[in-house]
Amino acid sequence: MEQPNIVFITTHELGRHLRCYGARSVRSSNLDALATRRVRFEQVFCVAPQCSSARAALAAGRYPHANGVMGLAHGEFAWHLPTTETHVAQYLKDKGYDTALFGLQPEFRQ
Asked: Higher model confidence: residue 1 or residue 26?
């Protein structure tokens, strides 16, 4: 059986500001097309009020108090996902997928 393509996107401060979520003043044609043909989340919740903790929870699949990222990853705060945590990209790589990290992801030391 052929594996499905998986695109996992997290963005900093984007929220629901895409046309596929009703923001008519935003041009996001490629993401809108992807949302139309595949999955678009409509009912989700955030596990932490800080962006770093929330993104680390998405990546590790574990709450901040379990994955170790209890605060912000930048500046003097310096919380990072411990190397003992398994990132979703590693799970996918172990299943034969090619994975890549693009852009700024301060929660993850590279």
From this structure: 26
